[in-house]
């Protein structure tokens, strides 16, 4: 089971609290996690990655195990602690604006 | 007894202001979608408890919300949580993909950018939602970068009416300071195939065949920054209003100039008359008097606030040219707010109510056609849009 942490606004939108647990088929990657997330919570489609290009939205970042994974190709396998559920994958909104 | 519901979209959420027909005491509910920009909310004339909202964010993109109980509860059409993950989720209510298909679409060309170069079209947000006058399942959305979309299933999925973007002048359209937005959609109650739209800064367009083909309707508009006096497009139209009692008579607040058309936009003439400044954004028409219109003059395009710090609505009872200042109940000094293009609306009670919201977070209302005003909400976030529903 993959553990996922969303920004507050997306938790509100998806009507979830705290972490989300997702069943994700191997190999676990950013793409497969987001596919599973959007499949379970269709309201989140388009909010993390663009509907058409599937590019990550510019003000969001992916972190896990104290690493910024935002710029790696989306099919890159996630670190083992994320794939095994020991560590969560964090989706974080940029702290910007006023 | 009649009731009035004022739908307010703001920089940080949506609010609903409710009153009985006297319109003296107001109840505020909200914020809905707290922290998100709500560009527009509008109720369905065919099913008034159905309300659509455009919820948007620079971080998370576009969401379409819908209420079927007058704003008490909301959902994203087709976005409900699925019991188990599946390969094909329901139709995405927030997907606005330009139609580039050979059958119904138009090639995704480029439009003019601020520096004069060409720039690709990119979806950014929904500026305006216009529900059908007769069918609660049909709703239109005006988006940035400018295009018109339609949903036939209550907002669950959207398709572009690509004839507008593809009719040929697209490469000459350019963004205004707020982006290249399609901000005005007017449905003609006398002709279901006729729709008017306006784009900043391309101009006004009309379809007479339900959105398949479009023509620019900008003859008579003159813009200082366009050298060609007969330019077909490029005009910075801020807003258009039309009385359902007199379809085909249109009133426009252009960047500068208040304009009028008596032939469904084919030609325009200026009716700014004695306004203290003819720059502004909002314009609307009295519900029962199709020659009575309202504007909020703003000092200039470089100073977006009222002249001399006095917030004023101007009313013409003669279809333009002769204007009277309406000030009773409005700030007399030190007022430096703006009133945005979609932030004025009218109710349809016998004594017509007029409402407008400011970037300072006030919503003002008049229950006597503009003679006197009172703040019906004072301290909201900056107001983007105001719509009114008159309920039996």
Amino- and carboxy-terminal Cα gap of chain B: 7 Å
Classified by CATH, the class of chain A is Alpha Beta
Supply the CATH superfamily name of chain A: Beta-grasp domain
Structural class of chain A: alpha+beta
List key phrases describing it.
heterodimer, A: 98 residues, alpha+beta, 3 helices, globular, B: 392 residues, mainly beta, Methylamine Dehydrogenase, Chain H, four-stranded antiparallel beta sheet, 0% helix
Summarize the helices and strands and which ones pair or pack.
The complex is a heterodimer of chains A (98) and B (392).
Chain A: E1 2-5, H1 8-14, E2 20-22, H2 30-40, E3 60-64, E4 67-68, H3 80-83, E5 89-93
Parallel strand pairs in A: 1-5
Antiparallel strand pairs in A: 1-2, 3-4, 3-5
Chain B: E1 3-10, E2 13-20, E3 27-32, E4 37-44, E5 47-57, E6 61-67, E7 110-112, E8 118-120, E9 125-131, E10 139-144, E11 147-151, E12 159-160, E13 181-187, E14 195-200, E15 203-207, E16 215-216, E17 237-242, E18 250-254, E19 258-261, E20 269-270, E21 280-285, E22 293-297, E23 313-316, E24 324-326, E25 344-346, E26 354-357, E27 363-366, E28 374-377, E29 383-391
Antiparallel strand pairs in B: 1-2, 1-29, 2-3, 4-5, 5-6, 7-8, 9-10, 10-11, 11-12, 13-14, 14-15, 15-16, 17-18, 18-19, 19-20, 21-22, 22-23, 23-24, 25-26, 26-27, 27-28
Verbal overview:
The complex is a heterodimer of chains A (98) and B (392). In chain A, 22% of the residues lie in helices and 19% in strands. With 98 residues, chain A is α+β, with helices and mostly antiparallel strands. Chain A has a single domain, classed as Beta-grasp domain (Ubiquitin-like (UB roll)). In chain A, strands 2-1-5-3-4 form a 5-stranded mixed β-sheet, with helices on one face. The radius of gyration of chain A is 12 Å and the shape is globular. Chain A starts with a strand and ends in a 5-residue tail after the last strand. Chain B is mainly beta and 392 residues long. Chain B has one domain (3-391): Methylamine Dehydrogenase, Chain H (7 Propeller). Helix content of chain B is 0%, strand content 39%. Chain B has strands at residues 3-10, 13-20, 27-32, 37-44, 47-57, 61-67, 110-112, 118-120, 125-131, 139-144, 147-151, 159-160, 181-187, 195-200, 203-207, 215-216, 237-242, 250-254, 258-261, 269-270, 280-285, 293-297, 313-316, 324-326, 344-346, 354-357, 363-366, 374-377, 383-391. Chain B has a 4-stranded antiparallel β-sheet, with no helix packed on it. Chain B starts with a strand and ends with a strand. The A-B interface holds A 7, 9-10, 13-15, 22-23, 36, 38-43, 45-48, 50-52, 57, 59-60, 93-94, 97 and B 35-36, 57-63, 76, 78-82, 84-87, 89-90, 92, 94-95, 97.
